[in-house]
Amino acid sequence: MPEVAAAPRKRNLLRSVGLGLITGAADDDCSAVGTYAQVGAQLGYKALWLAPAVLPMMVVAVYLSGKLGQVAGQGLFGVLRSHAPRWLLYLILAGVLVGN
Length: 100
Hints:
Elements: H1 2-26, H2 30-43, H3 50-72, H4 76-83, H5 86-99
C-alpha cells in the first residue's frame, strides 16, 4: 500500500519542480558556459558574492511566474497585456530583451 501513496507525492513534486528546472536549465547553453568562463577568468572570485545575493530573487521570480501561469492560464506578458497599460508592457518587454 505505501507504493500507491508514494506515486502521487512523486508526481506532485515533479510538477512543482518542473518549470523551475526547465527555466534553470535553459540558461546553461554552450555560449553561456563560454561567457561564464571568460568572466570567471577576468574577475576571479571578486563577483562570487553575487550568487547568494541574486539566487533568492531568481527563485522568487520563477516561482511567482509559475504560480501566475497556473492561476491565470497565461504567461507573464499575457497577464500584463490584459491588466496593465500598454506602455508598461512595452517597457518591461524592452527590459527583458535587453537583459537576455
